[in-house]
From TrEMBL:
Residues 9-125 form the Response regulatory domain. The keyword DNA-binding applies. It comes from Labrys okinawensis. It holds the Pfam family GerE. InterPro entries: CheY-like_superfamily, EvgA-like, Sig_transdc_resp-reg_C-effctor, Sig_transdc_resp-reg_receiver, Tscrpt_reg_LuxR_C. This is DNA-binding response regulator. GO terms for biological process: phosphorelay signal transduction system; regulation of DNA-templated transcription. Coiled coil: none annotated. GO terms for molecular function: DNA binding. Keywords: DNA-binding. Residues 151-216 form the HTH luxR-type domain.
Length: 240
């Protein structure tokens, strides 16, 4: 299926000149209709963001692990509705979920091949969310790796209705499917999901699914096994 996407420029933030130039050339070939804007540091991009309102995607390249994830919030605030992708050498689930909480739409580890990375970029441009399946499987089998929190107790008050919606989102169901399953209006489901995002302090459906794993476990909901988790990210992106 061919997915049309709005025009927009792509900004690349990478402090390594050779990598930055190579990525710029690859993206220019894969997305010829989009201008590529290279930046050496995130603060350079933040300073120039107001001059580039047409940027719809920012790719931030990191090393072993994102060095200052809190700075991503500034990048997000500067360029709504630009999407953010992190390209990193790290596949640490905690870093990935923290990035999702801050509004990142794609997390691409450098262990992935170019073809997968390009397709992940296309998915984000089309409005989806990309998370490496290997990290989801690892987090599913070792939940303690996903978050540095006390499980089960330190979560906001969630109503039974919201728990049902969280569980449905975690299964990759669309708003329309949730509305039909719970006998609600689709507009009501949207309001619930917005409120859930505020309570959990997240910005995406994927982040809801992962931040709520301990909540659902504590409330007795059935969780995904590793095989289910491998498909979860794409399912949630499609239902957004």
């Amino acid at each position: 299926m061919v997915v049309s996407s709005p025009p927009g420029q792509i900004a690349i933030v990478n402090n390594k000149t050779l990598q930055r130039d190579c990525l710029s050339r690859v993206l220019a070939v894969e997305f010829p209709e989009r201008k590529i804007l290279p930046f050496a540091r995130l603060d350079e991009w933040n300073a120039a963001a107001d001059k580039h309102e047409e940027v719809s995607l920012v790719i931030i390249c990191e090393g072993e692990a994102p060095s200052d994830l809190s700075s991503l919030a500034a990048a997000t605030a500067h360029t709504p509705p630009a999407a953010i992708i992190i390209l990193s050498d790290s596949e640490d689930p905690a870093s990935i979920f923290r990035a999702l909480d801050l509004g990142v739409k794609g997390y691409i580890p450098s262990t992935l091949g170019a073809e997968v990375a390009i397709e992940a970029t296309r998915l984000v441009i089309a409005g989806g969310v990309f998370v490496p399946a290997a990290s989801l499987i690892r987090a599913a089998s070792e939940p303690s790796l996903a978050r540095q929190e006390q499980p089960g107790r330190n979560y906001p008050r969630i109503s039974p209705r919201q728990l049902s919606i969280i569980a449905a989102v975690s299964r990759g169901k669309s708003n329309a499917a949730i509305a039909m399953e719970l006998n609600l209006r689709e507009s009501t489901v949207k309001v619930h999901i917005r409120n859930i995002m505020k309570k959990l302090k997240v910005k995406s459906r994927t982040a809801i699914a992962h931040k709520s794993r301990e909540i659902l476990r504590a409330e007795g909901y059935e969780l995904h096994n590793a095989a289910d988790m491998q498909r979860l990210s794409l399912d949630i992106a499609r239902s957004s």
